[in-house]
Amino acid sequence: MQTSLGHPTASAILFFFIIVVITLGITYWAAKRTRSTKQFYAADRSVSAFQNGLALSGDYMSAASFLGIAGLVSLKGYDGMIYATGWLVGWPALMFLIAEPLRNLGKYTFADVVAFRLRQVPVRIASAIGGILTVLLYTIAQMVGAGSLIKLMFGIPYEAAEIIVGVVMLIYVLFGGMIATTWVQIVKAVLLLCGVTVMTLLVLSRFNFNPGDLYAAVSGKLGQTALEPGGLVTSPVDAVSLGLALMLGLLGLPHILMRFYTVADAKTARKSVLYATGFIGYFYIIVPIVGFGASVLVGREVITGIDKGGNMAAPLLAEVLGGTPFLGFIAAVAFATILAVVAGLTLAGASALSHDIYVNVIKKGVATEQEQVKVAKVATVIFGILAVLLGVLFKGQNVAFMVGLAFAVACSANFPALLLSIVWKKFTTAGAVTSILTGAFLSVLLIIISPTIWVDLLHKKEAIFPLKNPAIVSMTAAFLVGILVSLVTRDDNARAKFEDEKLRTYLAIGAE
Amino acid sequence: MQTTQEMLDSKEFKSLVGKKWTVSIVLLIVLFVTYYGFILLIAANKPFLAQKIGEFTTLGIPFGVGVILVSWVLTAIYVVWANNTYDVEVQRLKDQVRK
User: Fold this and answer.
1) Tens digits of per-residue pLDDT, A184-215?
2) What are the backbone angles phi and psi of residue B97, rounded to the nearest 5°?
């Protein structure tokens, strides 16, 4: 098939500019309302449940969700659905385990919760390491995705694309803080949900609005195996390990957890998670239809011909369904998706640097409002430049793999310490620090010696560690280390504060 | 009116915290069984999910969609319980604590 991918079309550029202009307009409006730290990091805790539900969806539905899952389903068939379900089941787990404590104990970052009754300095430093590592890995995935996407869509060189993303995103975060970032997420989530809904309807319209007819066409063209579970997960241990990372990784993603502080109270936070689960669930139910549609209407050879990873399946399908204008629209939506996620990640990374490290470690919690906002902005610029450099450095890496890595680190480094700090009276400062560091370094190490890197990238014969995803080992180790170290150390202060903490955790007395 | 210590020691507060975790753990178990059941079926019993339920549609497709729907319903159950039952009790206890 003839495609105009790689050649900038008037409609693609038009849609792209419309989106950038709208979001910059939002930033201009938000900038006038961003003065205090609370406004910069937490949008003044004034975001409504519905808005936050959309913003959470916006933060979570990254390019990996849209382009990645559509591509995976188009090339691998049914197996792509495993990722779709795995990325959703984290939301109820988040709700049941940490929603209230997270909202009631924290102020701006999840480290506020971990460090609540422990010694501030060591715990803040460790949490910042875990948090920043997660955010950086996630950012690299998004930046690499953005560069390749823009290069393919508009024909702009990869490095120039990185700089465009970096600059636009920095403008959002720097001037508009959390208020602008939230609205950018909302705009993006609505555009993405609408765009994918239209695509799904257009695909189904080719098959008499009957999914059965679509599956018949898939079976006819690619064989029945495309509709059956295949080789993506083989051994039960590997499958559960991947499942754990996908599910519990969410509970350690700093940019998602941070959204809990943008709403007024736990009640609003819960409602916003319900909205988010609805939007994201709906999205993951319809995205496979887009993937299957692409495998029939575009064809696997054409998809892999453009991009080996299959990431261009959805844009190619858009061109088949609605011509160049629709391609332009979907391209712009995909770009907005990445831009918004990177903005959210940058804000989370900057808050770890400025709120956790600068204010609470270096200044021991004493810093004026102006000073805090200034440091937050400097941290944002540092993080933005870092994102662009890493994006250029990691050019050509597999996006889904990098996201998987971020989830593995999140569920191993951040989640165990967060949960133990909330529920276990005897948890100590030493326990928290060792748990976070064990989770962070073990998960990274195990990924390096796993089949994915050791065999596929370094071309060694056999992997030292057999599992593709380390979560089952690294997360368990982080829990064990946290528990064992806490049992052999004493932290009387932390134990004494646990009871007071309970009133705040469960009754929100003293919550900010 | 109670002091914070009296509240912490009160039966009502302890039972509220207990109830919260019972609800959370029960729902979490249902979620784990649903999701890891699905994952283990994929890993260990592919032919089961490959069964045809329509002319071409496999059983795996409604199962995948089912996991997503169950997740949403579980979330909804928790939110309805927490916002209507738990929060009312929280407010009542909160008002009893001396500021």
Assistant:
1) 899 999 999 999 999 999 999 999 999 889 99
2) -85, 130
SS (H, E, C) A237-260: HHHHHHHHHHHHHHHHCHHHHHHH
CA dihedral A25, A26, A29, A33 (to 10 degrees): -150
Best B22, B58, B98 member to test A by mutation, with max A CBs in 10 Å, is B58
Whether the CB-CB separation of A27 and A162 falls below 8 Å is answered with: no
Q: Is the pLDDT of residue A303 over 90?
A: no
For residue A167, give every residue at least 6 positions away whose Cβ sits within 8 Å of its Cβ, in sequence order, or none: none
Q: What is the pTM of this model?
A: 0.92
Q: CATH number of the domain at A10-400, out of 1.20.1600.10, 3.30.470.20, 3.30.930.10, 1.20.1730.10?
A: 1.20.1730.10
CB contacts, 8 Å: B48 with chain A = none
CB A67 within 8 A of CB A312: yes
Partners of B27 on chain A (C-beta within 8 Å) are 92, 96
Confidence band, pLDDT 50/70/90 cuts, at residue A168: confident
Q: How many residues can be counted in chain A?
A: 512
User: Quick one: DSSP state of residue A6?
Assistant: T
Domain ranges of chain A: 10-400
A372 contacts: CB under 8 Å, gap ≥ 6: A37, A354, A355, A359
| Nearby residues of A154 by Cβ (< 8 Å), 6 or more positions away | A8, A12, A13, A16, A161, A331
CA–CA separation, B55 vs A214, rounded Å? 11
pLDDT-based confidence at residue B65 (cuts at 50, 70, 90): very high
Is-contact A469 A242, C-beta < 8 A? yes
Predicted confidence at residue A252, as pLDDT, reads 94
Residues with Cβ within 8 Å of A466's Cβ and at least 6 positions away in sequence, in order, are A238, A450, A451
Question: Which residue in chain B is spatially nearest to A234 when comparing CA positions?
Answer: B43
